[in-house]
Amino acid sequence: FIADHREIAAKRLTHKRAFEWEGTRVELFLAESRVGQIVTVVHGIHRFVWPDSPLDHEATSLRVASLAALRAFRASHGALGRLEHRGEQVMWRSLTEGQVGYVIPSTIVEATPEYMVLFQHAGSVCKRRTGRRGGPSGRSMLPGGWDGTHEDRVWEGPGMMRLYSRGAWWSVFRRWNPDAGRSEGWYVNLELPWSRTAVAYDSRDPVLDVTVADDLSSIAWKDEADLAFEVEVGTMPAQLAEKARTEGRVAIAAIEARRWPFDPSAWDAWRPDPIWPIPTMPPGWNQVEAETVRP
Protein backbone atom coordinates (compact mmCIF):
# COMPACT_ATOMS: atom_id res chain seq x y z
CA PHE A 1 0.00 0.00 0.00
CA ILE A 2 2.67 2.50 1.04
CA ALA A 3 4.82 2.01 -2.05
CA ASP A 4 1.89 2.51 -4.43
CA HIS A 5 0.61 5.84 -3.12
CA ARG A 6 1.97 9.37 -2.86
CA GLU A 7 3.17 10.25 0.63
CA ILE A 8 2.30 13.65 2.15
CA ALA A 9 5.71 14.80 3.32
CA ALA A 10 4.37 17.41 5.77
CA LYS A 11 2.59 14.66 7.68
CA ARG A 12 5.65 12.42 8.07
CA LEU A 13 6.02 12.24 11.85
CA THR A 14 7.51 9.78 14.32
CA HIS A 15 4.10 8.30 15.09
CA LYS A 16 2.36 8.39 11.70
CA ARG A 17 2.52 8.65 7.89
CA ALA A 18 -0.07 10.10 5.48
CA PHE A 19 -0.88 9.30 1.83
CA GLU A 20 -3.27 10.28 -0.92
CA TRP A 21 -5.58 7.37 -1.81
CA GLU A 22 -8.29 7.86 -4.42
CA GLY A 23 -8.57 11.54 -3.57
CA THR A 24 -8.69 10.95 0.18
CA ARG A 25 -5.98 11.57 2.74
CA VAL A 26 -5.18 8.39 4.64
CA GLU A 27 -3.19 8.51 7.88
CA LEU A 28 -1.37 5.45 9.17
CA PHE A 29 -0.56 5.45 12.89
CA LEU A 30 2.22 3.45 14.47
CA ALA A 31 0.48 1.30 17.08
CA GLU A 32 2.13 -1.14 19.46
CA SER A 33 0.70 -3.85 21.66
CA ARG A 34 1.75 -3.30 25.28
CA VAL A 35 0.38 -5.39 28.12
CA GLY A 36 -2.87 -6.08 26.31
CA GLN A 37 -3.31 -2.47 25.17
CA ILE A 38 -2.82 -0.83 21.79
CA VAL A 39 -0.61 2.25 22.21
CA THR A 40 0.55 5.12 19.99
CA VAL A 41 3.40 7.35 21.22
CA VAL A 42 2.72 10.84 19.81
CA HIS A 43 5.78 12.96 18.95
CA GLY A 44 7.89 10.60 21.05
CA ILE A 45 6.41 12.14 24.22
CA HIS A 46 2.67 11.54 24.68
CA ARG A 47 1.27 8.02 25.04
CA PHE A 48 -2.28 7.29 23.92
CA VAL A 49 -4.16 4.03 24.56
CA TRP A 50 -6.62 3.21 21.82
CA PRO A 51 -10.07 1.99 22.89
CA ASP A 52 -10.75 -1.73 22.72
CA SER A 53 -11.12 -3.01 19.14
CA PRO A 54 -10.27 0.29 17.42
CA LEU A 55 -10.17 -1.34 13.96
CA ASP A 56 -13.80 -2.42 13.83
CA HIS A 57 -14.64 -0.73 10.53
CA GLU A 58 -13.76 -2.10 7.10
CA ALA A 59 -13.43 0.07 3.99
CA THR A 60 -13.02 -2.08 0.85
CA SER A 61 -9.78 -4.00 1.43
CA LEU A 62 -8.61 -1.88 4.37
CA ARG A 63 -9.54 -2.12 8.03
CA VAL A 64 -9.73 1.40 9.45
CA ALA A 65 -10.22 2.96 12.85
CA SER A 66 -13.76 3.47 14.05
CA LEU A 67 -15.23 6.94 14.50
CA ALA A 68 -15.28 6.43 18.28
CA ALA A 69 -11.60 5.52 18.31
CA LEU A 70 -10.66 8.57 16.23
CA ARG A 71 -12.72 10.89 18.42
CA ALA A 72 -10.93 9.56 21.51
CA PHE A 73 -7.55 10.15 19.87
CA ARG A 74 -8.44 13.70 18.80
CA ALA A 75 -9.77 14.56 22.26
CA SER A 76 -6.62 13.37 24.01
CA HIS A 77 -4.37 14.96 21.38
CA GLY A 78 -6.04 18.31 21.96
CA ALA A 79 -5.63 18.06 25.72
CA LEU A 80 -2.00 17.06 25.39
CA GLY A 81 -1.22 19.69 22.81
CA ARG A 82 -1.16 22.62 25.20
CA LEU A 83 1.99 24.67 25.37
CA GLU A 84 4.65 24.15 28.00
CA HIS A 85 6.01 27.49 29.13
CA ARG A 86 8.38 28.87 31.74
CA GLY A 87 6.61 29.55 35.02
CA GLU A 88 3.79 27.08 34.40
CA GLN A 89 2.85 25.03 37.45
CA VAL A 90 2.71 21.28 36.77
CA MET A 91 2.52 17.99 38.64
CA TRP A 92 4.77 14.96 38.39
CA ARG A 93 3.19 11.70 39.56
CA SER A 94 4.46 8.19 40.21
CA LEU A 95 1.76 5.65 39.33
CA THR A 96 1.71 2.04 40.48
CA GLU A 97 -0.78 -0.28 38.78
CA GLY A 98 -3.02 2.66 37.91
CA GLN A 99 -2.89 4.15 41.41
CA VAL A 100 -1.34 7.52 42.25
CA GLY A 101 1.61 6.67 44.49
CA TYR A 102 2.93 10.15 45.11
CA VAL A 103 2.69 13.61 43.57
CA ILE A 104 5.29 16.39 43.35
CA PRO A 105 4.08 19.88 42.34
CA SER A 106 6.71 21.82 40.40
CA THR A 107 7.26 24.81 38.12
CA ILE A 108 8.62 24.65 34.57
CA VAL A 109 12.00 26.37 34.22
CA GLU A 110 12.49 25.45 30.55
CA ALA A 111 10.82 23.10 28.09
CA THR A 112 12.15 22.10 24.67
CA PRO A 113 11.38 19.16 22.36
CA GLU A 114 14.49 17.44 23.78
CA TYR A 115 14.24 18.06 27.53
CA MET A 116 12.39 19.66 30.43
CA VAL A 117 13.75 21.43 33.50
CA LEU A 118 11.47 21.65 36.54
CA PHE A 119 11.89 23.36 39.89
CA GLN A 120 10.66 21.71 43.09
CA HIS A 121 10.13 24.45 45.66
CA ALA A 122 11.26 24.23 49.27
CA GLY A 123 8.12 24.05 51.41
CA SER A 124 5.95 22.60 48.64
CA VAL A 125 3.24 20.15 49.74
CA CYS A 126 3.41 16.76 48.04
CA LYS A 127 1.04 13.79 48.27
CA ARG A 128 1.88 10.19 49.23
CA ARG A 129 -0.20 7.04 49.62
CA THR A 130 -0.97 6.03 53.18
CA GLY A 131 -1.18 2.51 54.54
CA ARG A 132 0.93 -0.39 55.78
CA ARG A 133 4.58 -0.08 54.82
CA GLY A 134 7.61 -2.26 55.46
CA GLY A 135 10.86 -3.44 53.92
CA PRO A 136 14.47 -2.57 54.79
CA SER A 137 13.84 1.18 55.04
CA GLY A 138 10.19 0.94 56.08
CA ARG A 139 9.11 2.95 53.03
CA SER A 140 7.77 0.16 50.77
CA MET A 141 4.00 -0.19 50.51
CA LEU A 142 3.12 -3.78 51.44
CA PRO A 143 0.91 -5.94 49.20
CA GLY A 144 -2.67 -4.78 49.75
CA GLY A 145 -1.39 -2.21 52.23
CA TRP A 146 -2.76 0.97 50.65
CA ASP A 147 -5.78 2.23 52.60
CA GLY A 148 -7.13 4.25 49.66
CA THR A 149 -6.08 7.68 50.92
CA HIS A 150 -3.12 10.05 50.61
CA GLU A 151 -1.33 12.27 53.08
CA ASP A 152 0.38 15.64 52.73
CA ARG A 153 4.18 15.57 52.81
CA VAL A 154 5.95 18.93 53.02
CA TRP A 155 9.24 19.05 51.10
CA GLU A 156 11.56 20.32 53.82
CA GLY A 157 14.75 20.09 51.79
CA PRO A 158 16.22 22.81 49.58
CA GLY A 159 14.72 23.80 46.26
CA MET A 160 15.61 21.24 43.59
CA MET A 161 16.27 21.62 39.88
CA ARG A 162 15.19 18.56 37.90
CA LEU A 163 16.29 17.82 34.34
CA TYR A 164 14.48 15.21 32.26
CA SER A 165 15.59 14.24 28.75
CA ARG A 166 12.39 13.25 26.98
CA GLY A 167 12.10 9.51 26.54
CA ALA A 168 14.81 8.74 29.12
CA TRP A 169 14.45 6.34 32.05
CA TRP A 170 15.86 8.78 34.59
CA SER A 171 16.00 12.41 35.58
CA VAL A 172 18.75 14.37 37.33
CA PHE A 173 18.16 16.34 40.53
CA ARG A 174 20.46 19.13 41.73
CA ARG A 175 20.12 21.35 44.79
CA TRP A 176 19.46 25.02 44.05
CA ASN A 177 21.66 27.41 46.04
CA PRO A 178 19.91 30.81 45.86
CA ASP A 179 22.77 32.65 47.55
CA ALA A 180 25.36 31.40 45.03
CA GLY A 181 22.85 31.41 42.17
CA ARG A 182 23.77 27.94 40.96
CA SER A 183 22.83 24.27 41.08
CA GLU A 184 24.91 21.95 43.26
CA GLY A 185 25.18 18.21 43.86
CA TRP A 186 23.88 15.35 41.72
CA TYR A 187 21.20 12.69 42.17
CA VAL A 188 19.89 10.33 39.48
CA ASN A 189 16.25 9.33 39.98
CA LEU A 190 15.43 6.22 37.94
CA GLU A 191 11.90 6.36 36.55
CA LEU A 192 9.88 5.22 33.58
CA PRO A 193 9.61 7.63 30.61
CA TRP A 194 7.16 10.37 31.41
CA SER A 195 3.65 10.28 29.96
CA ARG A 196 1.93 13.61 29.55
CA THR A 197 -1.76 13.77 30.44
CA ALA A 198 -4.22 16.63 30.75
CA VAL A 199 -3.45 16.96 34.47
CA ALA A 200 0.14 15.79 35.05
CA TYR A 201 3.34 14.17 33.88
CA ASP A 202 2.98 10.52 34.86
CA SER A 203 5.74 7.99 35.41
CA ARG A 204 6.65 5.23 37.85
CA ASP A 205 9.54 5.24 40.28
CA PRO A 206 11.08 1.74 40.41
CA VAL A 207 12.73 2.48 43.81
CA LEU A 208 16.35 2.14 42.65
CA ASP A 209 18.40 5.35 42.32
CA VAL A 210 22.01 6.47 41.83
CA THR A 211 23.85 8.84 44.16
CA VAL A 212 26.77 10.90 42.88
CA ALA A 213 29.46 12.92 44.64
CA ASP A 214 29.30 16.68 44.14
CA ASP A 215 32.49 16.57 42.03
CA LEU A 216 31.27 13.48 40.09
CA SER A 217 34.22 11.51 41.48
CA SER A 218 32.21 8.65 43.01
CA ILE A 219 28.96 6.87 42.18
CA ALA A 220 26.82 4.47 44.21
CA TRP A 221 23.55 2.59 43.89
CA LYS A 222 20.80 3.56 46.35
CA ASP A 223 17.89 1.51 47.73
CA GLU A 224 19.00 -1.83 46.28
CA ALA A 225 17.67 -3.68 49.33
CA ASP A 226 14.26 -1.99 49.01
CA LEU A 227 14.08 -2.98 45.36
CA ALA A 228 14.93 -6.61 46.17
CA PHE A 229 12.27 -6.62 48.89
CA GLU A 230 9.56 -5.30 46.56
CA VAL A 231 10.43 -7.87 43.90
CA GLU A 232 10.27 -10.62 46.54
CA VAL A 233 6.83 -9.62 47.85
CA GLY A 234 5.47 -9.00 44.36
CA THR A 235 4.87 -5.24 44.38
CA MET A 236 7.65 -4.65 41.81
CA PRO A 237 7.77 -6.76 38.63
CA ALA A 238 11.15 -8.48 38.28
CA GLN A 239 11.34 -7.38 34.64
CA LEU A 240 10.91 -3.73 35.63
CA ALA A 241 13.54 -4.09 38.35
CA GLU A 242 16.03 -5.47 35.83
CA LYS A 243 15.20 -2.68 33.38
CA ALA A 244 15.86 -0.14 36.14
CA ARG A 245 19.30 -1.65 36.75
CA THR A 246 20.05 -1.56 33.02
CA GLU A 247 19.04 2.10 32.72
CA GLY A 248 20.98 2.91 35.86
CA ARG A 249 24.09 1.56 34.19
CA VAL A 250 23.35 3.82 31.20
CA ALA A 251 23.23 6.82 33.54
CA ILE A 252 26.44 5.74 35.26
CA ALA A 253 28.22 5.49 31.91
CA ALA A 254 27.10 9.03 31.08
CA ILE A 255 28.40 10.27 34.43
CA GLU A 256 31.77 8.58 33.98
CA ALA A 257 32.12 10.04 30.48
CA ARG A 258 30.95 13.48 31.73
CA ARG A 259 28.35 13.52 28.98
CA TRP A 260 25.51 16.03 29.01
CA PRO A 261 23.80 16.74 31.35
CA PHE A 262 26.66 15.81 33.70
CA ASP A 263 28.51 19.01 32.94
CA PRO A 264 28.08 21.69 35.62
CA SER A 265 28.38 24.52 33.08
CA ALA A 266 25.36 23.18 31.18
CA TRP A 267 23.17 24.15 34.14
CA ASP A 268 24.24 27.80 34.35
CA ALA A 269 21.35 29.05 32.23
CA TRP A 270 18.64 27.38 34.32
CA ARG A 271 17.45 29.51 37.21
CA PRO A 272 14.12 29.63 39.01
CA ASP A 273 12.47 33.02 39.30
CA PRO A 274 12.46 34.10 42.97
CA ILE A 275 8.97 35.59 42.58
CA TRP A 276 7.42 32.26 41.57
CA PRO A 277 4.81 31.15 44.12
CA ILE A 278 4.95 27.68 45.61
CA PRO A 279 2.62 25.50 43.50
CA THR A 280 -0.51 24.17 45.13
CA MET A 281 -2.17 20.82 44.46
CA PRO A 282 -4.77 21.44 41.71
CA PRO A 283 -8.16 19.78 41.37
CA GLY A 284 -7.89 16.38 39.74
CA TRP A 285 -4.43 15.61 41.13
CA ASN A 286 -5.54 12.04 41.94
CA GLN A 287 -7.44 11.33 38.71
CA VAL A 288 -6.04 8.71 36.34
CA GLU A 289 -7.56 8.93 32.88
CA ALA A 290 -8.59 5.71 31.21
CA GLU A 291 -7.32 6.83 27.79
CA THR A 292 -3.80 7.48 29.08
CA VAL A 293 -1.26 4.66 29.15
CA ARG A 294 1.10 4.44 32.09
CA PRO A 295 4.58 3.31 31.08
Structural commentary:
The protein is mainly beta. Helix content is 15%, strand content 40%. It is built from three helices and 19 strands. The strands form four sheets. Strands 8, 9, 10, 11, 12, 13, 14, 15, 16, 17, 18 and 19 form a twelve-stranded mixed sheet that branches. The chain has a three-stranded antiparallel sheet with strand order 3-4-5, covered by helices on one side. Strand 1 (16-21) and strand 2 (24-29) form a beta hairpin. The protein starts with 15 loop residues before the first strand and ends in a 39-residue tail after the last helix.
Protein topology:
Elements lengths: L15 E6 L2 E6 L2 E3 L2 E6 L3 E4 L7 E3 L2 E3 L2 H14 L8 E8 L2 E13 L3 E6 L4 E10 L5 E15 L5 E6 L4 E8 L4 E9 L4 E2 L4 E3 L5 E4 L6 E4 L1 H10 L4 H19 L39
Parallel strand pairs: 8-17
Antiparallel strand pairs: 1-2, 3-4, 4-5, 6-7, 8-9, 9-10, 9-11, 10-13, 11-12, 13-14, 14-15, 15-18, 16-17, 18-19
